[in-house]
Amino acid sequence: MLTENKTSISSNADKPVYAEKVNKVAWLYLNRPQVLNGINLELAENFSEVLAELEADPETRVIVLSGMGKAFCAGGDLKAINALADEDSSRVFVEQAGTITAAIAECKKPVIAMVNGAAAGAGFNIALACDLIFAADNAKFIQSFAVVGLVPDCGGHKLLVDAVGTYKAKELIFTGRPVTAKEAMQLGFVNAVYSLENLKNEVEAFVEALANKASLAIYESKALLNRAKGLSLSEVLREEAIIQAKLIMSADSREGFTAFFEKRLPNFQGK
User: Fold this and answer.
1) What is the SS3 assignment for 127-194?
2) What does the pLDDT read at residue 14?
3) Rounded to an integer, what is the distance from CA 158 to the centroid of its chain?
4) What's residue 6's pLDDT?
5) Rounded to the nearest 10 degrees, what angle do helices 122-129 and 87-106 cross at?
6) Nearest CA among 101, 150, 94 for reference residue 124
7) Which residues pair with 246 in a beta bridge?
8) Residue among 116, 130, 44, 109 nearest 81 (CA)
9) Angle value at C-alpha 50, between 128 and 8, nearest 5 degrees
């Protein structure tokens, strides 16, 4: 388990986003539990700052995103949204919230969502922006925008379609019905479901193993997978050749081959 070398990263428990690092894994928390981690401008700005620092930290190889308290994220803070004065301030709010999903998608390191409760509205789309999703058995995913007369934001129109297809996305957006963790796994956008009591331990075990794999290769695969839908097969083949040639010459690849022939586990250094 990840129990050693626990350090804080550029944030504290009083900030709307809190992070701590345990060995090679950073645990990033949305930290407004009193409003179910609802998004306001301060949280959105703080998120991008903290994630950028984690991405730049050479010792951090995997980032886990979760919510403090009983929810992952209930979406936009409705009181903050209701207080917006005009279309200009509303657009600024929505654009700033969207920087959360953009930052996750553009982060070179794998970001794993640990959904510990409700992921509603923008919270659902933030989870979808992550590379993998592990959920508690009580988690619910809800495109709740239509309930208050809104459309999905934080990239929901693309992220949900990419996850479940256009027709299912329309159903979930039009109706705003909750999707259970079990159904989410059947739909293919949740990787595994665990009891709430076991969720943290199961995710810890997974990310500890992931953090010891060849990080350079994982970063390259994430980047190419995220843009592959917009590329032709010939373009993907060309990019794979460029990336693979670079990795074959890397220290990590040499270590991987050496470990394979010596019948031992590799010790990847991310170089």
Assistant:
1) HHHCCEEEEECCCEEECHHHHHCCCCCCCHHHHHHHHHCHHHHHHHHHHCCCEEHHHHHHHCCCCEEE
2) 83
3) 15
4) 59
5) 30
6) 101
7) none
8) 44
9) 115
Q: 37 with 69: CB under 8 angstroms?
A: yes
For residues 67 and 114, give the distance between their C-alpha atoms in angstroms, rounded to a whole number: 8
* H, E, C per residue of the chain: CCCCCEEECCCCCCCCEEEEEECCEEEEEECCHHHCCCECHHHHHHHHHHHHHHHHCCCCCEEEEEECCCCCECCECHHHHHCCCCHHHHHHHHHHHHHHHHHHHHCCCCEEEEECCEEECHHHHHHHHCCEEEEECCCEEECHHHHHCCCCCCCHHHHHHHHHCHHHHHHHHHHCCCEEHHHHHHHCCCCEEECHHHHHHHHHHHHHHHHCCCHHHHHHHHHHHHHHHHCCHHHHHHHHHHHHHHHHCCHHHHHHHHHHHHCCCCCCCCC
Give residue 1's pLDDT.
41
The pLDDT value recorded for residue 132 is 98
Domains and CATH numbers, the chain: 6-211 (3.90.226.10), 215-262 (1.10.12)
Query: Mean pLDDT for each 10-residue chunk of the chain (271 residues)?
Result: 51 83 95 96 95 95 97 94 93 96 97 97 98 98 94 97 97 97 97 97 97 95 94 96 96 94 92 89
